[in-house]
């Protein structure tokens, strides 16, 4: 089979990690008889430099014409002082919106052999951790009305958190479908003791599950408690559904519990099979261009693309096993390195994983 993949390398370590994922996909193609055609498009800071905007139309068109999209990361010091609407991150929000992607699934998995990389006590993580955070992606405060001005002589700024029932229902559907194949439990995170938008969220997730997924148990956890529970007892969670901003913050926290954000992938999906697959971390400008970043999150993002966009489950498993074998053999990039293991760079790690396929 032939697959057309749009690659948005982005900024910072983006080009390094995308090259690593492409090397692994090419190996999968050779072994399983698929052809992956890669077309690169600009997004973020590099697009601002070339086109004067973070998301040029050519990138949107390229993504919409592709079978699926692989993204590195955007942003960096160079563009930090630009006003909100022209910042690199705007490209990211824009492409998700343009592709109609309203869910972001982030599995925070603690890999076998990486328990020492977790900052938590071994007793808390010894039985493994796999928290799947289903984050609403195109609504809420990141897309709400924003305002800046001066009132009674004081400068002010405001951002609006707003959700509609259909927005909450469609993200709950994705969480319930996932939970139905797993623990049949969904934890919904909100701040219903304070926020009106959270009260609607809470009412809607319960009504939706009761009507469409009566076998699924829905539990509510307040976001402040959730932040504590993730470090106190992360193994208690399976599928977690939450709003855009809470999901953004909690998924980084859950990621850290598993050791390194350099290990975690995510997928963004809407109503079609075409998705956007990316690592959960940013562009890591502090280590860009040094060949020391961890490419595994992006390699696993490419694996998720094979499974979720192209239904290539065997190929997905081949990549997961190749990653596990690299870890079993003691290879570690700097972010997950511990004494007694073999420190490798980004390029070498990609070669080792591709070689394991
Ligand atoms: P970051 O995720 O880029 O980096 C946080 C820390 O983790 C840094 O110390 C970095 O070196 C390290 N790190 C990240 N990825 C790594 C990897 N693959 N291997 C090893 N170490 C890794 O977050 P930040 O520093 O808050 O943001 C840097 C830039 O990235 C900012 O411009 C931010 O806006 C942007 N950003 C982009 C995305 C995205 O493109 N999806 C997400 C988050 C942040």
How many E-type strands? 14
| CATH fold type of the largest domain | Isopropylmalate Dehydrogenase
CATH architecture of the largest domain: 3-Layer(aba) Sandwich
Question: H/E element string?
Answer: EHEHHEHEHEEEHEHEHEHEEHHEEH
The share of residues in extended strands comes to: 15-25%
Nearest-integer average pLDDT: 95
Spatial shape: globular
Poorly predicted sequence stretches spanning 5 or more consecutive residues = none
CATH superfamily of the largest domain: Isopropylmalate Dehydrogenase
Provide an overview of this structure.
The protein has helices spanning 14-32, 45-51, 57-64, 88-98, 122-125, 165-180, 196-212, 223-232, 244-257, 296-308, 313-328, 346-355; strands spanning 2-10, 35-41, 68-73, 103-109, 130-136, 146-151, 154-159, 185-190, 217-222, 239-242, 265-269, 276-279, 331-332, 342-343. With 357 residues, the protein is an alpha/beta fold. It has two domains: 1-101 and 264-357, Isopropylmalate Dehydrogenase (3-Layer(aba) Sandwich), CATH 3.40.718.10; 119-257, Isopropylmalate Dehydrogenase (3-Layer(aba) Sandwich). The strands form three sheets. A ten-stranded mixed sheet has the order 2-1-3-12-11-4-5-10-8-9, with helices on both faces. A two-stranded antiparallel ribbon has the order 6-7. The chain has a two-stranded parallel ribbon with strand order 13-14. Strand 1, helix 1 (14-32) and strand 2 (35-41) form a beta-alpha-beta unit. Helix 6 packs across helix 7 and helix 8 runs parallel beside helix 9. It binds nicotinamide-adenine-dinucleotide. The site of nicotinamide-adenine-dinucleotide (NAD) has 21 residues, from helix 4.
């Amino acid at each position: 089979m032939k697959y057309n993949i749009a690659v948005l390398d982005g900024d910072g370590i983006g080009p390094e990690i995308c090259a690593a994922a492409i090397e692994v996909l090419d190996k999968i193609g050779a072994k399983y008889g698929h052809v992956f055609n890669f077309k690169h498009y600009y997004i973020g800071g590099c697009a601002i430099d070339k086109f004067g905007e973070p998301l040029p139309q050519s990138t949107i068109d390229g993504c919409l014409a592709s079978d699926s999209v692989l993204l590195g990361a955007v942003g960096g010091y160079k563009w930090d002082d630009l006003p909100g609407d022209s910042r690199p991150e705007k490209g990211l929000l824009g492409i998700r919106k343009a592709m109609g992607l309203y869910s972001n699934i982030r599995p925070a998995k603690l890999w076998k052999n990486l328990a020492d990389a977790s900052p938590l006590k071994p007793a808390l993580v010894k039985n493994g951790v796999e928290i799947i955070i289903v984050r609403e992606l195109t609504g809420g405060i990141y897309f709400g009305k924003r305002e800046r001005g001066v009132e009674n002589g004081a400068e002010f700024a405001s951002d609006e958190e707003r959700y509609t029932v259909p927005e909450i229902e469609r993200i709950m559907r994705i969480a319930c479908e996932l939970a139905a194949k797993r623990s049949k439990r969904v934890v919904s995170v909100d701040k219903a003791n304070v926020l009106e938008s959270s009260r609607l969220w809470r009412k809607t997730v319960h009504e939706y599950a009761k009507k469409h997924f009566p076998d699924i148990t829905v539990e509510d956890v307040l976001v402040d408690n959730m932040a504590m529970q993730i470090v106190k007892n992360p193994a208690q969670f399976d599928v977690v559904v939450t709003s855009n901003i809470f999901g953004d913050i909690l998924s980084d926290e859950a990621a850290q519990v598993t050791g390194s954000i350099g290990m975690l992938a995510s997928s963004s999906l809407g109503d079609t099979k075409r998705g956007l697959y990316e690592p959960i971390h940013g562009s890591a400008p502090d280590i860009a261009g040094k060949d020391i970043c961890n490419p595994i999150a992006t390699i696993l993002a490419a694996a998720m693309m094979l499974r979720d966009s192209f239904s290539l489950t065997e190929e997905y498993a081949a990549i997961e096993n190749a990653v596990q074998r690299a870890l079993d053999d003691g290879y570690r990039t700097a972010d997950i390195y511990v004494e007694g293991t073999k420190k490798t760079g980004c390029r070498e790690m990609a070669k080792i994983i591709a070689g394991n396929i």
